Amino acid sequence: MNHRADFRRVKRHRTYTVSELARVTGVHDHTVRVWIKAGLAVLSDARPILISGEEAKRFLAARRVARKRPCGPGRFYCFRCREPREPALGMADYIPFDDTIGNLSALCPVCSTVMNKRASLARLGVVAARMEVAFPMGRTRLNESSDPSLNRDFGKDR
Predict the structure, then answer these.
(1) pTM
(2) Which domains does the chain have, with CATH numbers?
């Protein structure tokens, strides 16, 4: 089963039983019952329990909005802490992917997990507000080297 309910698959003008709504959203039947206890409105107390598609869609969309944790300028989302955080010591590294876009990488000050954020080079000043950004030199590839052989013994007499 899926951990996140896909509320986009719910039809507004349809009525669902608990098991039908669970199947459509990709969750377990017990999860739908937990939603009902948390405030998902049912059409009546009679069995089978019927849920309006419009109400289910509204309820799940509201839960999704409540879970969002937007990251403002100078903040990264830490997946271990599940919170937006400013980087440790206010420092981050910029690793370019190409000439226009790259990845900002920093450490979480709470759990020391590496946090990443995609950023364009043009908007780096806005994204990395009040942060010291380093541009580490990337390792050169063997084919970009003037002497691509790592074995320096080639051509020497033994």
Answers:
(1) 0.53
(2) 7-67 (1.10.10.10), 76-134 (no CATH)
